[in-house]
Amino acid sequence: MHDIIRLKDLTVFGYYGVSPAEREVGQKIQLDIELHADLKAARESDSLKDTINYELVYARVMEVVSSSRHRLLESLGEEIVDALIQSFPVSKVAISLRKLNLPFPNNLSYVEVCLTRSAAI
C-alpha cells in the first residue's frame, strides 16, 4: 500500500522558456507534487520524524528552481523529480508543471506537463 503526500499549486518564479525574452525576464509556473511513500510508521507514531516533512520538500524544490535554468518544463520537472527521489524515502514522485503566461493572442489558461517516476528499488 502506498500513501500520498501532495503539495498543490506551488507557485515558483524562474527563468524558463524557449525564447530569449522568457529566459531573461523570467516567469511564474505552478507545480503540483505527489510523493508516494509508506506512511504507516507516521500514522502509528504521530511523529514528524516518521514521515516526509513537506517543509523540507518545499525547500528542496525551491533550491532546484532557484539554481537552474531550463528551456522546457519537461527538463525542469525531471530535475525536480530526481532531486526529490534522491532526497526523500519515496517509491514514486509525480509532478505537474503549469506555464501560466503564454505568448498567444487568444485565450489559453495554461500549458501543463506531467511526469511520473518511480524510485529505483
Task: Report on the architecture of this protein.
The protein contains four helices and four strands, in the order βαβαααββ. It has 121 residues and is of the alpha+beta class. It has one domain: GTP cyclohydrolase I, C-terminal domain/NADPH-dependent 7-cyano-7-deazaguanine reductase, N-terminal domain (GTP Cyclohydrolase I, domain 2, 2-Layer Sandwich). The longest helix has 15 residues, at 73-87. The two termini are 16 Å apart.
Descriptive key words:
121 residues, 4-stranded antiparallel β-sheet, alpha+beta, GTP Cyclohydrolase I, domain 2, elongated
Structure at a glance:
By secondary structure, the chain is α+β, with helices and mostly antiparallel strands. The chain has helices at 20-25, 40-45, 54-66, 73-87, and strands spanning 3-14, 27-37, 92-99, 111-118. The chain has one domain: GTP cyclohydrolase I, C-terminal domain/NADPH-dependent 7-cyano-7-deazaguanine reductase, N-terminal domain (GTP Cyclohydrolase I, domain 2).
Write the layout of secondary structure elements.
Blueprint: E1 3-14, H1 20-25, E2 27-37, H2 40-45, H3 54-66, H4 73-87, E3 92-99, E4 111-118
Antiparallel strand pairs: 1-2, 2-3, 3-4
